[in-house]
Design brief:
Number of strands: 7
Strand content: 15-25%
Radius of gyration: 27 Å
Largest sheet: 5 strands, mixed
Distance between the termini: 65 Å
Order of helices and strands: EEHHEEEEHHEHHH
Number of helices: 7
């Protein structure tokens, strides 16, 4: 059931027993799944670099929190709200929590809900993107980033037969600029990182 007064896609959803139960199951699965993923997956453990507590809850009952240990690269989870979470997302209803958490655009939906007062976000908002990445290892909703690979057609070596109309001047490798290249020496004198690395005196800014 929706109520008017909010933009389309961010209506206030009422919750029945089915929504409450479904959210409890989803939070339990996220809790159990992240704990197992941190034990079995090195990529997941590599993302746990700090110690903090994260909570997801709804005003009509369901709630769960995760305790991340940056030193042990591990996570534990328990039902209920945390005493003092470092980051928390609190929904008005279980119905809205289900629709937001299972949406491919979960971050956008949570942020819009925050603007309209149907979601409360406490703590560093950047942690939402980090936690969403961990959630995807358990519930793979939404698109993953494209695989990293070299772009085709990279120009790795000079090709005299290329169709380009420009010319590429190839100079032999040198360890020091030619003293006759006055323009290059003048440009080098402006590069503090080069002068400092060579122990040369630095001008005052």
């Amino acid at each position: 059931m929706r109520t008017a007064g909010l933009p389309h896609g961010q209506r206030r959803w009422s919750s029945g027993p089915a929504s409450v139960t479904a959210l409890r199951v989803l939070l339990w699965w996220l809790g159990y799944g992240l704990v197992q993923a941190a034990r079995l997956s090195a990529p997941v453990r590599s993302q746990i670099t700090r110690s903090l507590t994260v909570e997801i809850s709804s005003d009509d009952g369901p709630s769960r929190h995760w305790v991340f240990d940056g030193q042990q690269r591990s996570v534990s989870s328990a039902p209920g709200r945390a005493a003092a979470p470092d980051f928390a997302v609190r929904f008005t209803t279980s119905g809205q929590a289900l629709r937001d958490l299972t949406s491919p655009n979960v971050i956008d939906r949570v942020m819009v809900g925050r603007i309209h007062g149907t979601v409360r976000v406490e703590g560093n908002h950047l942690l939402l993107m980090w936690f969403r990445g961990l959630m995807r290892t358990v519930v793979p909703i939404g698109e993953a980033g494209p695989p990293r690979q070299a772009l085709p057609g990279a120009y790795l070596a000079h090709d005299p037969a290329s169709n380009g109309d420009e010319e590429i001047t190839i100079e032999p490798a040198v360890r020091q600029l030619d003293p006759r290249w006055t323009g290059a020496w003048n440009a080098r004198a402006k590069l503090w990182i080069v002068r400092g690395a060579n122990g040369e005196p630095m001008w005052e800014p």
